[in-house]
Design goal:
single chain, 340 residues, eight-stranded mixed β-sheet, 17 strands, globular
Length: 340
C-alpha cells in the first residue's frame, strides 16, 4: 500500500503495530500457504448447495476456517485484536481461479447467487473475522455482492459508479454497521489505475485541532440513509468520534453526513481536508483481498473509466460482524439478513 501523507502518533502514544506478517498492512503469503488455503476453499465449494446464502453452507464455512493454514488464521486473529495504524489488511493473490471468469456484470443489484471459489474464499474469511451478514434493503440481502460499474450510473456515489467515491463508513446511518468490509478483486480495471483509498482515524486524529476533536465528539451530526433504507427523517443525531478519545471509533460519510451546528460543519470541513491529505491507496489485482476495519477506517475509491465490454473492474464484497448477537432484533430467525 502507498500513502499520500504521513503523521506522527500523539505525544505519549506508541504507534500502533501492524498485525504480525503484514508489512505496511500488506500480506504476501508463501506458495505452500496459498496452496493450503486454496485446498480448504475448494473443499468448501465442494460442499455447497445451489446458493451462496444457504445457512448450511455458511455454517460449513465457519468450521472449514479452522482447517485453514495456521499463518492465515494468526494474521486474521491479530488483525481482529488490533487492525494497525491504517485499519486495513490486504492479502495478495489468493487462489480464486480468476482466469476463467464470466463477463463482468453490468446491472444494478448484481450479486453472487451461485457458489463459486471467490464466494467460498469470502465466506471463509468472514468466519475468521466473525460472521457474514447483509442488509435486506441493499443488494437483496445477498452475502456476496458484486461491486461493478453500471452503464448510466457513472456519477452515482455508490458501488455502481465510476467517479471518485468519497470517504465513508460503510452504512454509517445504521445502528448495526458491519465491523469489517471485505473487497475481493476478481478483475482489475482496464488501465489498472483504480485505487481503493482508506483513511484511518489513527492517522487523522493527531492532525486535527483540539477544537475539532471536541466538536466531532458531540452528537451534532446526521447521516441520511439511501432511499432503499426508508425515509431520511428516521435519522438521529450522532457523534463522529465515539469511545476512547485516544483511539476512537468514527462514523462519517462524506456524501451523507452533515453538521447541524456551525461548529460541527467547520469540524467536518477540517476532517475532510485532513483525510484527503493523508489517505492510503492500494491498487487491487485479481486475487487480492482487502479487509477494512469499518469502525476506525473510512474507505473510498479513485475514479476510473469503464468500457462496458465485459472486462471491467469487478470486486466482490462481503460484510463481517464480530458480534452478530448485537443485531439479533434486526435478523428474523437469527438469520444472516438485517431487515431493518
Amino acid at each position: 500500500m502507498s500513502s499520500v501523507g504521513t503523521t506522527q502518533a500523539p505525544p505519549g502514544t506508541a504507534p500502533a503495530p501492524y498485525p504480525s506478517g503484514a508489512e505496511d498492512g500488506t500480506v504476501r503469503l508463501g506458495t505452500r500457504t496459498l496452496a493450503g488455503l486454496g485446498q480448504v476453499a475448494s473443499e468448501l465449494l465442494g460442499h455447497a448447495g445451489d446458493r451462496v446464502d444457504d445457512p448450511a453452507w455458511v455454517n460449513h464455512a465457519r468450521h472449514a476456517w479452522e482447517d485453514g493454514p495456521t499463518e492465515v488464521r494468526r494474521i486474521v486473529r491479530e488483525f481482529r485484536r488490533h487492525s494497525g495504524p491504517d485499519g486495513c489488511l490486504v492479502l495478495r493473490r489468493l487462489p480464486i481461479d480468476a482466469r476463467d471468469l464470466p463477463p463482468t456484470p453490468m446491472v444494478k443489484g448484481s450479486v453472487q447467487h451461485t457458489p463459486s471459489l471467490p464466494a467460498a474464499m469470502l465466506l471463509l474469511f468472514a468466519a475468521g473475522l466473525g460472521d457474514p451478514a447483509a442488509f435486506a434493503a441493499e443488494k437483496s440481502g445477498a452475502l456476496v455482492q458484486d461491486v461493478v460499474p453500471v452503464p448510466g450510473q457513472e456519477e452515482v456515489q455508490g458501488n455502481v459508479g465510476s467517479v471518485e467515491l468519497t470517504f465513508h463508513t460503510e452504512n454509517a446511518f445504521h445502528p448495526h454497521r458491519p465491523d469489517y468490509v471485505m473487497l475481493l478483486c476478481l478483475r482489475a480495471d482496464h488501465e489498472g489505475a483504480a485505487e481503493l483509498r482508506t483513511s484511518c482515524v489513527r492517522r487523522v486524529l493527531p492532525l486535527l485541532t483540539p477544537g475539532t476533536r471536541a466538536a466531532l465528539g458531540r452528537p451534532e451530526y446526521v447521516t441520511e440513509p439511501p432511499p432503499s433504507f426508508g425515509p431520511a427523517d428516521r435519522s438521529t443525531a450522532h457523534a463522529v468520534l465515539t469511545g476512547d478519545p485516544d483511539d476512537p471509533d468514527w462514523c462519517f460519510d462524506e456524501a451523507a453526513t452533515r453538521g447541524v451546528t456551525p461548529e460541527a460543519r467547520a469540524a467536518l470541513a477540517e476532517l475532510g481536508e485532513v483525510a484527503h491529505r493523508t489517505y492510503t491507496a492500494v491498487r487491487l489485482r485479481p486475487g487480492d483481498l482487502a479487509v477494512v476495519d469499518n469502525r476506525v477506517t473510512l474507505h473510498g475509491r479513485s475514479a476510473f473509466t469503464p468500457r462496458y465490454d465485459g472486462r471491467d473492474r469487478w470486486l466482490q464484497r462481503t460484510f463481517a460482524f464480530s458480534d452478530l448477537r448485537r443485531s439479533r432484533d434486526h435478523r428474523p430467525g437469527d438469520g444472516s439478513v438485517l431487515v431493518k
